[in-house]
Write a structure and sequence with these properties.
The protein is of the alpha+beta class. 34% of the residues lie in helices and 26% in strands. It is globular and about 50 Å long.
């Protein structure tokens, strides 16, 4: 059994120039590992890791989010505590710097799990969550990417062949030294998506799940595929009730995704014993892992 474990991801798909992501992956996973080593909770570490991914314009979350069909950024996120199944989620955010922090505030400071749009933003202001103006989110590469996809009259994952700029959805899963699990996921969605569209990232059981009885999971890919298969919860059930190890559950979950809906994407898992796994139906997936001090980068 691992003393502690941490995994982060920055999207799955056709990964171009994977070396671009190595420095940020290493920095974030090493920082998280140091915190786990000194006794930090899994919940605090996944929050920090996702927050730092949101702040990095390389990734499709927070500052680096893609643009919807109106040319605007709309962010979603969720977080879950494996100790008690507490969870928080947000969707359709405008201007919130770190959606994962708002998701956590909803989990800890309200009686609700999921807030959207203006109501979520009002809650953010009432609880001191930071905002940024629209220019903060409009990076030159994202604007160019949006124009290319709009010209083709299509939508596209950030990491598809049509979008060679940056990979997609970010997430983190962790098991701390107390044996507690946590998961968090954040995204800017799909390039040129319809205003109001919500994918799997903020949906507990689809894009995010954590339960000390099974595992912590964060997913990335075509959100509609993960919603229709409740993939995060499905993978957790493989561990809890079929007794699968993390890698077997990850592989079986992706097989299920493909068999049922020809699904496109990937997931990361840490099980109740601290074993780490990833699986994907895409050509590549950006991940980094830290387990008892050993760091593994897989930016492809």
């Amino acid at each position: 059994m691992k003393k502690y474990s941490l995994m982060i991801h920055g999207g799955a798909g056709t990964i171009h120039a994977p070396e671009r992501y190595e420095a940020s992956l290493r920095d974030i996973v090493e920082t998280g590992a140091r915190r786990l080593e000194t006794g930090a909770s899994a919940l605090d570490v996944v929050t920090e890791c996702v927050m730092r991914l949101e702040d990095n314009p390389l990734y499709n979350a927070g500052r680096g989010s893609v643009l919807n069909a109106d040319g605007l950024v709309s962010c979603d996120a969720s977080i879950m505590d494996g100790r008690n199944l507490d969870a928080g989620a947000v969707a359709g955010l405008r201007g919130v710097r770190n959606p994962v922090l708002l998701a956590r505030a909803i989990m800890e400071k309200s009686d609700h799990v999921f807030l959207i749009g203006e109501g979520a933003e009002r809650f953010a202001r009432d609880n001191g969550v930071d905002f940024e103006n629209s220019d903060y989110f409009l990076t030159a590469e994202r604007v160019a990417q949006f124009e290319n996809v709009r010209a083709a009259r299509s939508t596209a994952l950030d990491h598809s062949r049509a979008n060679e700029v940056k990979p997609g959805t970010v997430g983190a899963v962790a098991r701390d030294q107390s044996g507690d699990l946590a998961a968090a996921t954040s995204t800017g969605g799909v390039v040129n998506q319809l205003p109001g569209r919500v994918g799997d990232s903020p949906i507990i059981g689809a894009g995010t799940f954590a339960d000390n009885s099974s595992c912590a999971i964060s997913c990335t890919g075509v959100g509609e595929d993960f919603i229709r298969t409740s993939l995060a919860r499905t993978a957790a059930l493989f561990i809890e009730y079929r007794g699968m190890h993390a890698q077997d559950a990850a592989n079986e979950a992706i097989r299920f995704l493909v068999d049922k809906v020809q699904g496109y994407g990937g997931l990361i898992i840490i099980d109740r014993n601290g074993e780490c796994a990833r699986a994907h139906s895409t050509p590549g997936m950006i991940t980094a892992t830290a387990a008892d001090g050993e760091i593994t980068l897989r930016p492809c």
